[in-house]
# Entry
Amino acid sequence: MSTFLSPGVFTQEVPSTPPITGVGTSTAAFIGAVASNVPMPSLPDGSGTHALAPVGEPRFVSSYDQFTESFGVADQANLTLAHAVWGFFSNGGTSLYVTRVSALSAGSEVNAALASLAAIDEIAIVAAPGASGAAASTRAAVADHCALLQDRFAILDGEPTTTISVATIGGALPRNEFAGLYWPWIVVNDLRPPAAPALAPRPDLTVPPSGHVAGIYARVDADRGVHKAPANEQVRGARGLQRQVSRGEHDQLNPLGVNVIRSFRGDIRVWGARTWGGQQNAIQYLSVRRTLSFIRESIEESTAWTVFEPNSRPLWERIKRSARDFLTTVWRDGALFGDTPEEAFYVKCDEGLNPPAVRDLGRVVTEIGVAIVRPAEFVVFRISQGAALPTP
# Structure
């Protein structure tokens, strides 16, 4: 306490409530197969080559060239992963963790890789490009990893099939609202140089779409926000599709959670925004699932200051004020539905939620409700013709 003995103007510092800040949503993590005989690029001084990253150790990379320094140049030994990383950065991704395994079907290595990624809090997107067929269990493990942590989302590849069947495309993949399934595979230029002649065009290659789609997630998050569905977006670097899909065929897949990649007069776009959770007791749209995770994680990480504070009304008011300020910002960004903040969300922290019995357990309970915007998946124009049109 300051002692005031004579008249004057006095300035005092008072503690403030730390604001809730939004967490990042676009940092991705890939698990990919890289054989030990992959060719490594030369060191700048010519004294040798870069060392191959060990199995199970996440490496942060911010460019494709940086990826090659740890995981080799594009070669048969790392081809699927190399194309996924190239697709991520060419589609707008900027931050990526890559973890090497000897094979995507090596369950123990995949589980160890997922355990190491769990400790990296900024990761918000996880993929195992090419996990299908014999490695389909890895696809399920990635989805389970995201559902367990609830702060990240899995981008999964459908099977490399040309059959229009959800059972064939998804295989035995269990339903999971923390994952999105994308199909068909895409056709790209092979990153490996042609054998001969030297100036020959690069041959086409069919690759899984998850790496490119992860880049689209990052691009949309940066340009519009996590609440914008990463759909109706061009797949940069895609030259074609393994299977062209008609509207009628798409009608069979979309309601069941397959996010189809379509070609419209050569313009290849992601044309789906569903989770793999199914229609029963699951969040249907992946932008809603990711926005809810963003809000939850942001509040959780920014309110650590409340721990061990006196559990009384002043604390409750500070919690409510902090949460309301954050959610008002989220609403202004367009992520919440409502003409006013009161219509878009509510925050409750009072004696009704925190009676003596709850406080005696050392708990403070806050209830938050949000109205997250849904994507306009079906846009309908009603057009009429007549000699005299009614006044709208």
In short: The chain is about 30% helix and 15% strand. Residues 382 and 392 are 13 Å apart (CA to CA). The longest helix spans residues 313-332.
